[in-house]
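Researcher: Please generate the 3D structure of the following complex. Treat every line as part of one assembly.
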Amino acid sequence: MPAALLTVNLGAIVANWRALDALSAKTVETGAVIKADAYGLGVAPVGRALQKAGAKTFFVALAAEGATLRQAIGPAARIFVFSGYMRGDEAAYRDFNLTPLLNNADQVTRFLADRQGAACGLQLDTGMNRLGMEAAELASIIAQIPALNPVLIMSHLACADEPEHPQNAAQLTAFKDLTATLPDIPRSLSATGGILLRADYHMNLTRPGIGLYGGDPFIGAQPVVTLSLPVIQTRPVSVGESVGYGATWIATRPSVIATVAGGYADGLIRAMGPNASLYARDVACPIVGRVSMDLITVDVTDLARVQAALDILNATQTVDSLAQAAGTIGYEILTSLGNRYERVYKD
Amino acid sequence: MPAALLTVNLGAIVANWRALDALSAKTVETGAVIKADAYGLGVAPVGRALQKAGAKTFFVALAAEGATLRQAIGPAARIFVFSGYMRGDEAAYRDFNLTPLLNNADQVTRFLADRQGAACGLQLDTGMNRLGMEAAELASIIAQIPALNPVLIMSHLACADEPEHPQNAAQLTAFKDLTATLPDIPRSLSATGGILLRADYHMNLTRPGIGLYGGDPFIGAQPVVTLSLPVIQTRPVSVGESVGYGATWIATRPSVIATVAGGYADGLIRAMGPNASLYARDVACPIVGRVSMDLITVDVTDLARVQAALDILNATQTVDSLAQAAGTIGYEILTSLGNRYERVYKD
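Model: Done. Output below.
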């Protein structure tokens, strides 16, 4: 059936992973963050491609995501789970050999009671105040660290996308201070933004996410996705006629309007409406009127011929430029990509 | 595994369908629009519940959706497809007994060549300039109408959410004019908004969508969804400390912050961040800082005790109030609801 077509370039993801890996020293391991279904692009194909390229350590948000990933990539890789050892996750951790990043004393206590001897990591909060233990909570479990024998100690930067933000250095200092008395366990502080900061942020293991998928702040990333929406019909529209819900767009010249299959139910964020275009190769065709649930109307007046499909994501209109049109960030464009697309993976 | 929990009240959907049905005369059939996976709530359970309640006519956007629905509800119901007889859809129409709403002369010609004698409908454009034939295109296929023998003639209102908008009456007149010389075939013009206008908009068949799912403009709708996000951890935050990406929120009193599992990758639109709350029963706990991909941080300082989960959709914060916080409409809140939720259906 002629669905909208989402093409995911696995080769570009692998190239981005290698490029990010090359930004840290050879002694620094480069993992991969493939939570949220690999930022909407498919955890199984992305996980397999990165494992084949040499990635040995993956990060997901939830134990359920880890279970899916484990079934896709087999037993060899380490799979860390950011949300840690949540109640009800016990069976998933055991059955799928997942490694929790323990966030608080309760998770530590329960993990030791259930699974002492199994691998775990510790997540520390160094100023983002979101996930992980702070100094007092870490002190409360310090006596349990030999029994935990963690394989990783990590934290997360809140402002790494803004290299000049003073919180970066403050979090680096806080991380060093918090971990100064801990045993010689591998450390990790940086996702994509941190990799781009400086070598002192790299520690033993980096965890690129958005950069793998072609998004800011990794400016050198290869674009990963193209998204093409089929044209259902075209029509002439006279001067003064309106298009779409609320009659918000009114033709000021004799126009030709194409209606394409794709809308906000496919993650094409409604707010982008007046600011984005679709593309016929590299010719921009502005969206006119409101984005509807399943349909978008596009001004194709200036095309000599209307093709069977128009692109909304391509090398010209990237996830970041579409995000700008929608008032958000490339991450949200990616994770919103819908279920109704036909997905094709290129090596 | 302890995922966020989305509860869909099928009984409320059925009650809303009956209430909307009661707004038109007994002679008017009431269909149901369950495109976009029943507005994100699950086309199979919603389709089955409405069929059991008496709905005989369903509408979807794409042939692929029709195929899924047919497999869920069996052979009896009529399934109309708004996008019509698109190239590549031929097998789906045949194999799943779907009824296209033909949008243009090309679809008419191809449908007659492939499937003469099978049921079809005609979609007319009466001023929205999105889908359907206008006068000239209708005239070009008028000789084929006896061979088509359509079972429905329909159009769609662009401004039905604004009862006073002059385009409503203009579209009603245009629809009557366009269809005046056509045979005595059932007519349909109104979705939820049109049902609420006046009886002359009801024609032979109405097509409620958003009203079934508890959204504006059907003010009398019963709420259909509740969404509950598990708390991963809570932490004290001192005056002057910041929370979340970009350090955009800074505590002005000694605070307790809860981090819950759920974020924009779950369709909790990033833009809602500063304007929405989570709920502990009916106590509002404001979102603080930016919504992240998998996590939301919430000010729970005023709670005597933090429960294991907090609600982001409930009877107090409906899809429409959450939409207002995110600068969008309830429809987009519903269709964005994510894949990582555990879904429970109540009768």
